[in-house]
Amino acid sequence: MPICLDPEQTIRVVLEHDAALPLAEQPALIYKAMTGRQWRQFQALLDRASQVSGIEQLDLYYEAARVNLCDWLNMNRPFKPEELDDILSPGECEELLLKTMRVMRVGPEIKKKSDLQPASDTVKSVEPVSPVNVSIAPQA
């Protein structure tokens, strides 16, 4: 099954300053892999953001960061994607976008790796798939 359609697959993104926390305490943003259409939407938002500045650019960055965001963990508030700009600073949003751009290009070879962990797994430590502490994991 394509990774974008597999309901068991999620992508867990942890910001750099939270990476040293125990897995059970790490604030994380949970994404579904993007389809081609969603990737084009994401890229179009970033392209538009590169042509403007100030508040308009910041709004486009947060909108892009919400594309395929399906949950968050350890944020001390219920999941409401429209409130992403209430929990992330502009710098954290930029970090999230850079990580998202990197990991959303994963293929089936990453999906099949044996170190995939459920996003909600708090017992085992998750080996990072890349230096940015991002993992693709079955959704619990």
For the sheet with most strands, the description reads: 4 strands, antiparallel
Structural class: alpha+beta
Number of domains: 1
Shape: globular
Topology:
Blueprint: E1 9-13, E2 28-31, H1 36-49, H2 54-66, E3 69-73, H3 84-87, H4 90-103, H5 108-111, E4 134-138
Antiparallel strand pairs: 1-2, 1-4, 2-3
Helix pairs in contact: 1-2, 2-4
In short:
This protein has one domain (9-138): rbstp2171, CATH 3.30.2220. Strands 3-2-1-4 form a four-stranded antiparallel β-sheet, covered by helices on one side. The protein has helices spanning 36-49, 54-66, 84-87, 90-103, 108-111; strands spanning 9-13, 28-31, 69-73, 134-138.
Q: What does this entry look like structurally?
A:
By secondary structure, the protein is α+β, with helices and mostly antiparallel strands. It has one domain (9-138): rbstp2171, CATH 3.30.2220. It is built from 5 helices and 4 strands; from the N terminus they run E-E-H-H-E-H-H-H-E. It has a 4-stranded antiparallel β-sheet, with helices on one face. Helix 1 packs antiparallel against helix 2 and helix 2 (54-66) crosses helix 4 (90-103). The radius of gyration is 15 Å and the shape is globular. Residues 107-140 have low confidence and may be disordered.
